[in-house]
Amino acid sequence: MPRNEPAIHTEALTKTYRYTEQQPGLAGAVKGLFRPDRRERTAVDKLHLTVPRGQIIGLLGPNGAGKTTTIKMLCGLLRPTSGELEVLGHRPAKRGYDFLSRISVVFGQKSMLWWDVSTYDSLLIHREMYAIPKPRFANTTKDLAERLQVQDILNIPVRKLSLGQRMRCELVLALLHGPELLFADEPTVGLDVVAKLSVRTFLAELNRDLGTTIVLTSHDMNDVAALCERVAVINHGRTIFDGDLDALRSRADAGVDADLDQVMSKLFTEAADA
Amino acid sequence: MRLARVLRILVIREVTIMLHYRWWLAMLQLSNIVAPAISLLVWRGAIAQGSTPPVTETFLTTYLVLVSVVAMLPSSWTSGFLADSIRLGGLSSWLVRPCSTHLNGIANNIGEKVVKLVLLVPLVAVLGIIFRTEVELPPLGLRWLVFAVSLLMAGAMTFSLDIVIGSLAFWFEDVTAVNRLRYLLARILSGSLIPLALFPAAVIPFLNAQPFRFMVSFPLEVLIGHPSGQAFALQVGWFATFVGTAVVSWRLGLRSYQGAGA
Amino acid sequence: MKRYARLWWSCLRQAIRRDLQFRSQTLINAVASIAELVLGLIPVLILTGTSAAAVAWNGPRTLVVVGIYGACTGLMDCFVAPNLRRIDGYVRKGELDLILIRPVNAQLFATLRWMEPAELGRVVTGLGLAVAGAHAAHLPFEAGLVIRAAIWTAIGFAGFSVLWANLVYLAFWFESAEPINEVALQVREAGRYPLTYFPRSVQFVLATVVPAGLIAAVPAKALTGTATTLTTGLLLLIAGIALTILHWEVASRRYSSAS
User: Fold this and answer.
1) How far is it, in rounded angstroms, from Cα C27 to Cα B61?
2) How far apart (Å, rounded) are the C-alpha atoms in residues B207 and A274?
3) Chains that touch C (3 or more CB pairs under 8 A)
4) Domain ranges within chain C, ordered by starting residue
């Protein structure tokens, strides 16, 4: 695999959802059965995006802008309607073993850990799933647990952990197999300041020490400011901005110390007016 | 090889979790044995009072004593979980890992069976001891082996049906009503309430051909009856149909998956 | 008393309004409820079909039993069962607090709060079956006998509900009592069969401690004019209700002390 090949490459990536609208009431349900009112909605519209290896990119946009759909296509959950999509040289929607074992996903709102058992038990399952040799498993677990300071809680059933503890355990699980590409979907949502900072520091270290490419989505602009060398802003399924934070500020005619929340809000409303 | 190792560790984890719910499962087993016990009581009562059913009393008693275990082993409870994970988006967590969610479903069913078997066998044994004079099991041998194969196919069929019904959640909001209907039909048509041979002669050809027979009744017929070679062929046919339908509906469903939530 | 009647009425109206909102779901549930009755008829008819001459029961009379059973359990599943199924959750998740703080009798409220009108489809179908069966069996139609049968069914209804309630109150004592509902439902199925088919000892149990037999089998017999007096049944029922109230008192005290 050539190392200079980009981690993610999309060309005119498009996803349209088909849905049927149903009139209320029994009459509507019956009518919908025979003459469904089919509609289409374009969630992602001819998106062009290339992410080189080793980058931390923030994918931003208001709710419903199409960023979740984009992420889902990138990690193989959704099949694109049209356009080109290559991630680590693979077509994600095929969900092949080689592809899936080189990426990883962390959902802030959804747990990948098994609820009723300890984190360590979940790690054992992933060891078999990703066929990780025992010595490497032991080393990685020790290293990740130290970095995230979870050595003492690895053996506690997940349901008894606080949200902050759980999120750090989620990261251990997600990175156990040493993925080259990590999708972090709102990894800090609902966390207190301390936990938030530790997650942020960890992601930065991960990128620096192991060269892991990270695609981050977050509504917390402080996360973005702390981590991302590049941001792509999506609205109505299109990229309306792609560049670094300084460029983002100047694009919105704001100074270097301008509040990023205000910058983003201005950008979104401008896009809506346009 | 990797998948076998994953399955092994998933089953171990399932058993550990199930053990937390052992009393819950024990109670569930109690409810499983009540229905055949009632059938057993009324049918033996009827025979004692001079009724002449089309099967021998020994067959009837043995059948009803064993049916709760034989119905439990190939059963599956995956459809509800699967439908929920599709509707609420939990499926996403599985799709991003190099391991099928169905491997987890299989492990869940196996784990549950292990624990349930330990709980149910004593209850069945009690029933067997009460009616010991009329219970007759074949000696260990080929027949038990064929029984096991038939039971495995029955399990694969119910699991496939679960995947098909669960997959409906890719297109419809709620599959509980479908499930309720399916269990209603299965209860009668699979022979888990009374042996199919007791039904009126006019409907027997239909009962013998329909797929639910091969989910409970047929393995038992293999063990304590004399099913024809044709019936074996029919089971293989239904088995292939069910598994095939499950594979197709799952593939089609994944194409239209939208992954609710994150 | 009047206050309780009005409260119950408003609960019923709310349940109907809710069901009208989810019409397709309600329709499917009503159909399934009726299908349950019809499919449940099959094993009973097969049993009586193969042994009609021997046991002096016949198809039409069996229809009466299954019909009354369907109607009575339909009422139970509409008005009582949805509540009993929730008790375990009330206790485990601490939702009983929301009932205990109301200025009404908590036990009564916890038993009658929820209703599922869709199950009533089975009541109509069941009564239809019973009437058709009675007609085909040439049973004499006498108001006195019908009232007698109705009272027996009422005793069976109340008696079995009382048993079920006591079973679910186990939730106060044990953590995983939820499947007890399934056990109760399965045991109730015994009431589908004419009592004559059971061994004597089981007949006695089904007429007293586990009154599934009183739901339909005894009332159907009463219609033929050959049933025993009502007094014992009524006395047992009153004793059962008294015990249940006591059980709730003791058990719910345990709940408040636990939380």
Assistant:
1) 39
2) 67
3) A, B
4) 2-258
Kindly determine whether residue B42 and residue C182, on different chains, have CB atoms separated by under 8 Å.
no
Interface chains of chain B (3 or more CB pairs under 8 Å): A, C
Cα–Cα distance for residue pair B18/B4, rounded to 1 Å? 21
Q: Which domain holds residue B117?
A: 2-255
Question: Domain check: are A1 and A133 in the same one?
Answer: no
Pick from C19, C24, C25, C26 the residue to mutate for testing the A interface (most A CBs within 10 Å).
C24
Q: How far apart are CA C183 and CA C186, in angstroms?
A: 5
Cβ contact, residue pair A116, B20, below 8 Å: yes
Residues A131, A260, single domain; the answer is no
Distance CA B62, CA B221 (A): 11
Q: Are residues A145 and A12 in the same domain?
A: no
- Tens of pLDDT along chain A (274 residues) come to 455 689 999 999 999 887 766 666 556 656 666 666 777 888 899 999 999 999 999 999 888 888 888 988 998 888 898 999 999 999 998 888 999 999 999 988 888 888 888 999 999 989 998 999 999 999 999 999 999 999 999 999 888 899 999 999 999 999 999 999 999 988 998 899 998 999 999 999 999 999 999 999 988 888 998 999 899 999 888 888 899 888 888 877 777 677 888 888 888 887 665 5
Which residues of A fall below an 8 Å CB-CB distance to B?
17, 68, 72, 75-79, 95, 97, 100-101, 103-105, 107-112, 114, 116-117, 121, 124-126, 128-131, 185-186
What residues have CB less than 8 Å from C227, skipping those under 6 apart?
A: C148, C152, C218, C219, C221
> Which of B42, B55, B179 is best to mutate for the C interface (most C CBs within 10 A)?
B42
